[in-house]
Amino acid sequence: MGAFEYRQAEEIRQTFARHAIRYLFLGKSGAILLGFPDTTQDADVFPERTSENCSALAIALQELGFSLDPAQICEIERGKDFIQLKNGPFDLDIIFAPDGIERFEDAWRRRVEVEGFPVCHLDDIIASKAATNRQKDRESLPRLRAFRNWWMARQSR
User: Fold this and answer.
1) What is the pTM of this model?
2) 3-state DSSP call for residue 94?
3) Whether CATH 3.30.460.40 fits 6-149
C-alpha cells in the first residue's frame, strides 16, 4: 500500500460519522492531520471500546471496503487491543488500547478537532509513541516534540 492520504482520512470520517462511531485519529496519521510534515503508511484510529461502538465499527469498516473474515469481525466487536488491517483500500491500525493513554474518555476530552477530524492531542500522540518504545518511534520523537512546541505556540495566538 502507498502512504496515508488526506482522502483516506475523509473516507474514514464520513463513514464513521454515518455510523455514529466515536474515535480519534492517533499516531503519525493524527499528527499529520494536525500539520506535522511527515508521511506514514497507514491510518491509526483509537475507537471507544463500547459494544455499540465496536459493532458499528465492524459494519463501517466493511462499508469502507475492508474484507473482514469472521475472526476479524469478532476481534473488532470485542475491542481487541490492537488490530492491523491490510485487506482493504488502505492500511488501517485499530488501536483500542494505545500505549501511554489510559482511557478513551481522557483522550476524548483533550482531543483537537481539525476540519471535522477528531484527533488525539499531540501530547497523547507523543505519550503513545514514547510508551511503545519502538526504534522508529524513538527516532521520530524529537521531530514530534519540536513540532509540538511550534504547534502549541501557534495555538496560543
Assistant:
1) 0.95
2) strand
3) yes
Locate the domains of the chain by residue range: 6-149
Radius of gyration of the chain (CA): 15
Q: For the packed helices 70-78 and 51-64, what is the interaxial angle rounded to 10 degrees?
A: 140
pLDDT tier at 1, thresholds 50, 70, 90: low
Tell the burial category of 59 from Cβ atoms under 10 Å away from its Cβ (0-12, 13-18, 19+): middle
Query: How far, CA to CA in Å, does 91 sit from each of 83, 111, 128?
Result: 11, 23, 19
Angle CA(75)–CA(12)–CA(102) in degrees, nearest 5? 55
DSSP letter at 5 equals -
For 94-105, write each residue's pLDDT tens digit: 999 999 999 999
Helices (H), the chain: 6-18, 27-33, 51-64, 70-78, 104-110, 122-132, 135-155
**Can you tell me the distance from the alpha carbon of 108 to that of 63, in angstroms, rounded to the nearest whole number?**
25
pLDDT over threshold 90, residue 126: yes
d(CA 48, CA 96): 7
